[in-house]
From TrEMBL:
<dbReference type="GO" id="GO:0006412">
    <property type="term" value="P:translation"/>
</dbReference>
<dbReference type="GO" id="GO:1990904">
    <property type="term" value="C:ribonucleoprotein complex"/>
</dbReference>
<keyword id="KW-0687">Ribonucleoprotein</keyword>
<protein>
    <recommendedName>
        <fullName>Small ribosomal subunit protein uS9</fullName>
    </recommendedName>
</protein>
<dbReference type="InterPro" id="IPR020574">
    <property type="entry name" value="Ribosomal_uS9_CS"/>
</dbReference>
<dbReference type="InterPro" id="IPR020568">
    <property type="entry name" value="Ribosomal_Su5_D2-typ_SF"/>
</dbReference>
<dbReference type="InterPro" id="IPR000754">
    <property type="entry name" value="Ribosomal_uS9"/>
</dbReference>
<dbReference type="GO" id="GO:0003735">
    <property type="term" value="F:structural constituent of ribosome"/>
</dbReference>
<dbReference type="GO" id="GO:0022626">
    <property type="term" value="C:cytosolic ribosome"/>
</dbReference>
<dbReference type="InterPro" id="IPR014721">
    <property type="entry name" value="Ribsml_uS5_D2-typ_fold_subgr"/>
</dbReference>
<keyword id="KW-0689">Ribosomal protein</keyword>
<comment type="similarity">
    <text>Belongs to the universal ribosomal protein uS9 family.</text>
</comment>
<dbReference type="Pfam" id="PF00380">
    <property type="entry name" value="Ribosomal_S9"/>
</dbReference>
Amino acid sequence: GPLQSVQVFGRKKTATAVAHCKRGNGLIKVNGRPLEMIEPVTLQYKLLEPLLLLGKERFAGVDIRVRVKGGGHVAQIYAIRQAISKALVAYYQKYVDEASKKEIKDILIQYDRTLLVADPRRC
């Protein structure tokens, strides 16, 4: 059948992250590199927050590839984590079911709404 995939954007200030999420086996890469290779190391935990909050098993059935450009390192981190979160929500909405999607969305928003909603401050 056709490839099940979704594309979403994450933004922070001038940084833009584009995430493609498709059926897979839990691979998450940013600009072709694993999360643990993304700078700055001190903010890597921010990238892992969606996985820690939702549990690895929710990501186990998908591959997420993120491209990020613009902005500084810190803004990029926030754009990436938003793109990862939004990608999973969008994928579940389209290919899994509404209840699972709502569950994921609620967990993320309760913890930190900027995981799904762009921060209105430009700078």
